[in-house]
């Protein structure tokens, strides 16, 4: 899909895959060119005044929005990492407090998962969406096995720390490039074929927040049993 920038003056077409910052830089340059073009003494005065007015207005807008201090992509990345990081910190704190025995215990409820399995699944969710789909790493995944996973809490926390350390690089790919691999297998959701990078990041935030709530409820049930 193409986006036409500065319609009515200098027309530039930017492909939809280009970054927002690149489109803004293009708009900035074209507005400047319009200023020079319509200031030419040879241009009829009425047209020149009108075009100069339009160009100055667009130039000011482009100058503000393209400012290096207004990095929308960076803000998205920062917010994503802050929220997911908070969820992961809370998860590791819960399983650490529960210890190996309770962390590997499933509540006596239909379809319930152990705290260990919940956190293990969350790590795999990040690896799939951010590592495989966004970064194109093709990290192996056995989704069904995630819900029956067991092990030592210390080893699980090491897995969380590892994926958390790699996540900033993957988020950077998302906001700067987009999704590298839409053919990855391992999810029950079909959106990987059409989703935007922004959708994937929002999905990660939602998934971790949802499973943190599940983990908190599971902990409470196990404590009361």
Strand portion, in percent?
under 5%
Helix content class? 55-70%
The average pLDDT value, as a whole number, equals: 81
H/E element order = EEHHHHHHH
Count of discrete domains: 2
CATH architectural category of the largest domain: Up-down Bundle
Number of helices: 7
CATH domain class of the largest domain: Mainly Alpha
Our Rg estimate from Cα atoms comes to 25 Å
Strand order of the largest sheet: 1-2
Q: Would you tell me the structural class of the helices and strands? A: mainly alpha
Taking the alpha carbons of the first and last residues, their distance comes to 56 Å
Give a written overview of the molecule.
65% of the residues lie in helices and 4% in strands. It is mainly alpha-helical and 225 residues long. Strands 1-2 form a two-stranded antiparallel ribbon. It is globular, with a radius of gyration of 25 Å. A hairpin with a 6-residue loop joins strand 1 and strand 2. It contains 7 helices and 2 strands. It folds into 2 domains: 64 residues, no CATH class; 153 residues, dinb family like domain (Four Helix Bundle (Hemerythrin (Met), subunit A)).
């Amino acid at each position: 899909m193409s986006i036409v920038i500065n319609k009515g003056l200098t027309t530039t077409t930017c492909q939809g895959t280009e970054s927002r910052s690149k489109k803004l830089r293009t708009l900035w340059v074209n507005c400047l060119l319009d200023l020079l073009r319509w200031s030419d003494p040879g241009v009829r005065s009425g047209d020149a005044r009108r075009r100069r007015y339009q160009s100055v207005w667009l130039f000011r807008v482009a100058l503000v929005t393209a400012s290096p201090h207004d990095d929308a992509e960076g803000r998205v990345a920062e917010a994503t990492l802050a929220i997911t990081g908070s969820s992961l910190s809370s998860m590791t704190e819960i399983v650490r407090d529960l210890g190996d025995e309770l962390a590997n215990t499933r509540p006596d409820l239909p379809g319930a998962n152990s705290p260990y399995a919940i956190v293990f699944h969350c790590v795999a969710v990040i690896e799939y969406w951010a590592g495989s789909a966004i970064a194109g790493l093709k990290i192996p995944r056995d989704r069904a096995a995630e819900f029956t996973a067991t092990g030592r809490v210390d080893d699980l926390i090491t897995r969380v720390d590892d994926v958390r350390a790699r996540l900033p690089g993957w988020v950077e790919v998302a906001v700067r490039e987009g999704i590298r691999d839409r053919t990855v297998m391992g999810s029950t959701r079909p959106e990987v074929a059409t989703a935007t990078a922004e959708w994937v990041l929002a999905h990660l935030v939602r998934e971790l927040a949802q499973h943190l709530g599940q983990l908190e409820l599971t902990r409470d049930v196990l404590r009361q049993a």
